[in-house]
C-alpha cells in the first residue's frame, strides 16, 4: 500500500479543522526559476491567513500540488492528533498566485528544490523530536555517525548502534501507534530520511510498523569505507535476503508459503552458500563476530529443528549436509559436526523420525 494513501487518511482528519464555510481549491503557478517549493503530501490541505487553526481559512490545496515557499517557518509548533497519533509541527508560509501569503501545517508538506536541504532538515528534526522525544537525539547522532563512517571498523560500530536503536524505536512506535485498522495508521515513512540503512514496512497484516535493515543501502555505504570487512559482511546480508535486500522475517534458505510460515529449502545449496559467506567474514576480522554467530545458529536450527518441514527431496538434502561437513568451515565447530551427522542419519530414515520432506511435489519420498 503506497505512502500517499496514509497522507490521504491524515487529510480526512485535517479537513475537520476547517470552518463551516466551503473552501475553494487554490491553484499555483511556480516559475521554473524558483528553487524552493513545497510539495503537498495530503489531500485537501487547508490554507490559513495566519499560523494557527483559529485563524481564517483561505482555501485548500490538493495532494501532489507544488506551492512556492514564502520564506517563513514558525518557531512555535502546534500539537495535533492525526490518525490517533500526536504530532507537533510548525507552520510554513506559502505564496498564492495573487501574491498573498498563507500558512499551512508543516505535517502536510515536504520541501523540494536546490536550496531546500536546510529547511527540510529543520522540519524533520522538529517532527522527529515530537514523535520520539528524547530518543530523537540518539537517532540524529546515529545518522551523523553513519554518514561519517570511513573505515570497516567504524561501519561495524554504527551498524551495531543502529540495531540497538532500531529496537528502541520499534518499542516507541508500538507505544505511540496503537494496533488498529490500517486506515487509521499515520504516515511515518519520513523516518527513512533520518535513519539510513533501514526501511519502514507494515507487518502484522498491515496493522503495525517495523524497521527493517536494507542491505542494499548498507552495502553501498560499506563500499565507500576503507577496508573490505564490511563489504563482505553486507554481501552476506544480500545473500541471506536475496529477494529484495530487505531484512524480512524469512531468509533465503526458507520458502514462505503463507503469512506465518513455510518450509526449509535445505537441499537447494542456500544453507551452504550462507555458511561459506559467514566463514569468510569471520576469517577477516571479529568486527561482525556476534552477527555471524546469529546467522550460523539460524542456519543450523533450520537444519536440525524437528518442527521444520522441508521443500526438497531426501537425496538433495543429504547431499547438501555432506557438502557442509566436507567444507570444514572454521565457524562450524565439533559440536556442529556431531549435530549435522546425527541429522543426516535422521534424514536417511526420515519416515521413522517423523520428518516431512519433498513438500514441493506434495509427497514424502
How would you describe the overall organization of this protein?
With 365 residues, the chain is an alpha+beta fold. The protein has 3 domains: 3-127, SH3 Domains (SH3 type barrels, Roll); 133-227; 250-365, no CATH class. Helices cover 41% and strands 19% of the residues. It has 11 helices and 11 strands. It has helices at 3-14, 117-132, 135-148, 152-176, 191-194, 215-222, 229-240, 270-284, 289-304, 314-327, 334-348, and strands at 37-40, 45-48, 57-61, 66-82, 85-95, 101-105, 109-112, 198-203, 208-213, 254-258, 261-264. The strands form 4 sheets. It has a 5-stranded antiparallel beta sheet with strand order 6-5-4-1-7. A hairpin with a 5-residue loop joins strand 5 and strand 6. Helix 8 packs antiparallel against helix 9 (289-304).
Low-confidence stretches: 1-23
How many beta-strand elements?
11
Tally of structural domains: 3
| Sheet having the most strands | 5 strands, antiparallel
> Could you estimate the helical fraction of the residues in percent?
40-55%
* Cα-to-Cα separation, first versus last residue: 41 Å
User: How much is the radius of gyration in Å?
Assistant: 26 Å
Shape: elongated
Strand content: 15-25%
Q: Could you give me the name of the CATH homologous superfamily of the largest domain?
A: SH3 Domains
**SSE class:** alpha+beta
* Fold-level CATH name of the largest domain: SH3 type barrels
- Strand order in space, largest sheet: 6-5-4-1-7
The CATH architecture of the largest domain: Roll
Look at the structure and give the mean pLDDT.
85
For this structure, what is the CATH class of the largest domain? Mainly Beta
Give the ordered list of helices and strands.
HEEEEEEEHHHHEEHHEEHHHH
Please, how many helices?
Answer: 11
Amino acid at each position: 500500500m503506497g505512502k500517499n494513501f496514509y497522507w490521504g487518511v491524515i487529510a480526512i482528519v485535517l479537513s475537520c479543522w476547517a470552518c463551516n464555510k466551503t473552501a475553494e481549491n487554490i491553484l499555483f503557478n511556480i516559475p521554473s526559476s524558483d528553487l524552493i517549493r513545497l510539495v503537498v503530501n495530503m489531500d485537501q490541505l487547508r490554507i490559513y491567513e495566519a499560523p494557527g487553526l483559529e485563524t481564517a481559512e483561505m482555501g485548500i490545496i490538493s495532494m501532489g500540488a507544488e506551492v512556492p515557499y514564502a520564506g517563513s517557518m514558525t518557531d512555535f509548533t502546534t500539537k495535533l492528533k492525526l490518525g490517533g497519533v500526536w504530532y507537533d509541527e510548525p507552520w510554513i508560509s506559502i505564496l498564492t498566485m495573487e501574491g498573498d501569503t498563507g500558512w499551512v501545517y508543516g505535517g502536510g508538506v515536504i520541501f523540494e528544490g536546490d536550496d531546500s536541504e536546510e529547511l527540510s532538515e529543520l522540519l524533520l528534526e522538529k517532527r522527529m523530536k515530537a514523535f520520539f522525544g528524547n530518543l530523537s537525539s540518539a537517532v540524529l547522532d546515529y545518522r551523523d555517525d553513519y554518514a561519517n563512517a570511513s573505515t570497516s571498523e567504524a561501519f561495524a560500530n554504527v551498524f551495531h548502534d543502529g540495531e540497538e536503536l532500531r529496537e528502541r524505536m520499534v518499542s516507541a512506535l508500538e507505544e505511540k501507534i496503537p494496533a488498529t485498522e490500517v486506515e487509521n495508521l499515520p504516515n511515518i515513512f519520513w523516518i527513512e530520511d533520518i535513519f539510513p540503512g533501514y526501511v519502514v514496512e507494515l507487518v502484522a497484516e498491515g496493522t503495525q510498523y517495523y524497521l527493517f535493515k536494507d542491505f542494499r543501502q548498507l552495502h553501498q555505504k560499506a563500499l565507500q569505507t576503507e577496508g573490505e570487512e564490511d563489504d563482505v559482511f553486507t554481501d552476506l546480508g544480500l545473500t541471506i535476503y536475496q529477494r529484495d535486500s530487505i531484512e524480512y522475517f524469512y531468509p533465503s534458505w526458507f520458502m514462505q508459503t503463507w503469512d506465518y510460515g513455510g518450509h526449509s529449502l535445505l537441499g537447494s545449496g542456500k544453507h551452504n552458500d550462507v555458511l561459506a559467506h559467514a566463514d569468510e567474514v569471520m576469517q577477516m576480522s571479529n568486527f561482525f563476530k556476534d552477527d555471524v554467530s546469529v546467522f550460523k545458529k539460524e542456519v543450523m536450527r533450520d537444519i536440525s529443528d524437528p518442527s521444520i518441514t522441508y521443500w526438497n527431496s531426501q537425496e538433495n538434502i543429504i547431499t547438501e549436509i555432506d557438502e557442509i561437513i566436507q567444507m570444514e568451515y572454521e565457524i562450524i565447530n565439533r559440536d556442529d559436526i556431531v549435530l549435522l551427522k546425527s541429522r543426516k542419519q535422521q534424514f536417511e530414515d526420515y519416515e521413522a523420525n517423523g520428518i516431512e520432506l519433498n513438500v514441493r511435489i506434495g509427497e514424502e519420498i
